[in-house]
Amino acid sequence: MSYKTIKIDISGIVQGVGFRPFLYNLARKFGLKGFILNRGNAGVRVLLQGNSDDLDNFILEVKLRKPNIAFIEKMEIQEISLEKRFKTLEIKKSEDAVGISLTLPPDIAICENCLKDMRNPNLKKYYKYPFVACAVCGPRFTTVIDLPYDRERTTMKIFPFCNNAEPISCEEEYSDFNNRRFHAQTFACSKCGPNYQLYDKNRNLICNEDIDKILSNVRDLINDGKIVAIKGIGGVHLACLANDDEAVLKLRTRKGDRKYKPFAIMVPNLNMIESYFNISPKEREILQSFRRPIVLLEKNNKNFNNLISNQVAPGLNNIGIMLPYSGIHYLIFDYLGSVPLVYTSGNKSNIPMAIENDEIFKQLSHLADAFLLHDRPIYQRADDSVLRVHENKIKIIRRSRGYVPEYIPLPFNVGLSGAIAVGPELSSTGAILRRNRIFPTQHIGNVTRFETFEFLKNSIFHIKNLLKIKDNEIRFIACDKHPLFLSTSLAKELSEKYFVELYPIQHHYAHALSLMVENKVSLDEEIITLCTDGVGYGDDGKIWGGEILACNYSDYMRLGHLEYQPMIGGDRCSKYPARMFASIILNNLSVEKSLVIFEKLELKKYLQYGKQELEVIIRQYENSKNLNSDTSIPLTSSTGRIFDTISFILGAAQIRTYRGEPAMRLEGLASKARSNDVKIDVSIEKENNKQVINTSKLILDILNLRLEKVHSFENIAASFQRALAKALAKIAIEAARKRKIEKIGLTGGVAYNFMFSEVIKKEIKANDLIFLEHDLVPPGDAGISIGQIVGGIFKHDSE
User: Fold this and answer.
1) I need a surface site. Which of 174, 325, 609, 660 has the fewest CB within 10 A?
2) 145-159, 253-267, 408-422: least confident range
3) How far apart are CA 180 and CA 132, in angstroms?
């Protein structure tokens, strides 16, 4: 056997996952000498000497036995000539970050070994200690200030390791290569680490240091129907009993505009989920994964009402469920027992979660009865991620904790050193380009206020800093085409700051581009994309939202859309579906006939100002028809507004109290359908060389079905979703045949609707075409920033 030296450069998610300790112990196993070096955010370098067979076996086992959470993107192996013979094996001090990528994983749920330590009374330093962690679990992204990933560059730097704890100190564990906390950066113990304190709502200290007393008090408070603010890994939550109507309603009242918006639920174990919810193998896998997101699960109607209050998710057929993911969660359930908890983000509506204790008190002083807070700083807030599963495909609704800062790889080479996208306005994220990788930020929310505007900026700059992108390496800024978004003003500010071009990307084209890169569409391909959502600024100045586009990476063509409908009062139509309904009816019937229908449906009850508002709506409509009038009414092709209108007609939702509510309630209604006997025809007409779906006839037909009272509202709701899906699929299939295109994709917020998206998928596959859908990127507006980056790349290349 020959003796040789090899250099291995490993890139991917190889920091914060116990990768260097894994490599160290593996090299020891084969008697190899040399060193292991963390190369900042470029990955890990291994320089080893030994017999060729031992080196070959080392390489093989790296690939086969790597830590589960690690992701090896590339291993570059090179035999080198080196006269020096190493006598030892060591982990060298990390190099500074060089900015090639991010090798850092997201926050990771507590592992089974640490959970056992926390419940082991013989291991006093970790017994009932909520911050127990090791090399393969615990917080990562939310603690990291800078890279490379070492303790002094995390928020744990203020908690030096103890050196005298029994039976072994944290300093000894960190230095012991046989210990699973060897070179773990964010662990500590009750002697040297952060701790929880319990306060009342007036900031008076109830308990300090005595964790048993703290948890006993929390148990009593929650059992007494109180709401407790609990600081966790990436922010703060509000918790109360999920089976207590009074407690849940109290939380709704205190949240202000949270009249019907669903709350997320945390349950102690999978057995409880399986007893009360329908759960697939894929959903079970995701719930138990290290990401621990909130997963929308369908209720098991046989047993459900015995477990969770109907006030948790009124009118919906599914509820967001998550399992515990940190030590404090398990400890609370250890004291409470097997009961479900409402576990919802602790923030005022449309304002980011507070992460500093003073701000938590200030923001939640009127929401919580008690505060369970710890003294470990949170550097980056991260909401719980939310998703649902369509068969085996994941539809991410909110991409945050457990996912960020993982990147989206591009299916083509990009030489650009850096670029920034600021996202749209609602349910937004930002994104950073670094060569052929896109790094989306954590969930930001609605960028409509100063607080979320600042959060967006902070999140973008944090990832830019982690990637070590210099100001002169930014090549362009991308944004939405809407000129009035706050995010657009941020894009202009950044464009001027970095002296680079600003590229506005049309909203639905950005949706399509995000779908294309996720599905690895090649540079020479064109696809047909169905973009169905609530609102997006169109090229003609109208509000788009039901679009059939032919797309490649350089451009797109609008082939068809839903019929334009008036929105009398503009955005108020999205909050009050009765307004949208009134707009469509007035546009298709005389005022006299419209008034008869409005009376039958008691329309005035569902307008904020009743009869007076209806009179104003009618007057505005009539004035718009006057050729000498300056009154103009916005027009929209939005799929979301049509879903809202049908939801109103069928009584699923008369007023929108949270974004997407009418469509979600309509889906809940449709899920109860028991037959397919309702016939709904959707007309497709040609206007200006585009295929246009006649939604006026569709609305009137469904209105007549409701008034005839022959069919159940549930069956009508289901038939509507299928009929519209088939009409959209038909246009897309015909366009694909005509243009000799093999792939058709679905994106946009309405793609979260299971029945709607599954019908489209089935129709496309039945015609031997390839269906593209999302699995890694959110179909909704949270995925827009990724598409903006892609659109900007090709605008930049064309100049």
Assistant:
1) 609
2) 253-267
3) 12
Give residues with Cβ within 8 angstroms of 716, minimum separation 6.
650, 678, 680, 702, 705, 706
With beta carbons less than 8 A apart as the criterion, state whether 566 and 621 touch: yes
**Going edge to edge, which strands form the sheet with 431-434?**
408-409, 437-440, 431-434, 419-421, 476-480, 501-505
What residues are annotated to the active site? 20, 38
What is the average pLDDT across 101-110? 85
The predicted structure's pLDDT at residue 1: 64
In whole angstroms, give the CA distance from residue 524 to residue 322.
42
For the chain, what is the mean pLDDT? 93
- Asked whether 229 and 364 are in contact (CB, 8 A), the reply is yes
Q: How far apart are CA 126 and CA 53, in angstroms?
A: 41
* One-letter amino acid for residue 413 of the chain: N
What pLDDT does residue 41 have? 67
CATH number of 3-91: 3.30.70.100
Cβ–Cβ under 8 Å, residues 431 and 786: yes
CATH 3.30.420.40 domain position(s) in the chain:
521-564+637-772
Q: Average of pLDDT values for 98-114? A: 83
Helices marked H in 150-244 — which ranges? 170-175, 211-223
Is the separation of the CB atoms in 506 and 795 below 8 Å?
Answer: no
Scanning 519-604, the segments in alpha helix (DSSP H) are 572-575, 577-588, 591-600
| Cα distance between residue 281 and residue 562, in whole Å | 37
Tell me the CATH number for domain 521-564+637-772: 3.30.420.40
- Tracing tokens 């500093």 back to the chain, one arrives at 356
Per the model's pLDDT, the better-predicted residue between 719 and 415 turns out to be 719
Q: According to CATH, where is 3.30.420.360 located in the chain?
A: 407-519+780-797
Cβ neighbours for 688, distance < 8 A, ≥ 6 positions apart = none
Residues 6+ apart with CB under 8 A from 385: 291, 293, 294, 396, 398, 399, 400, 401, 402, 403, 443
Inter-CA distances, 725 with 527, 562, 680, 691, 706, Å: 18, 12, 12, 15, 20
Helices (H), 30-167: 52-65, 112-118
Report the distance separating Cα 170 and Cα 158, nearest Å.
15
Gyration radius of the chain's alpha carbons: 28
Domain at 407-519+780-797: CATH code: 3.30.420.360
| pLDDT value, residue 104 | 79
* Amino acid found at 126: Y
Q: Where in the chain is the domain with CATH 3.30.70.100?
A: 3-91
Q: Is the pLDDT confidence value at 626 over 70?
A: yes
Does the global pTM surpass 0.85?
Answer: yes
CA distance 378 to 383: 12
Taking the C-alpha atoms of residue 51 and residue 391, their distance in angstroms, rounded to an integer, is: 49
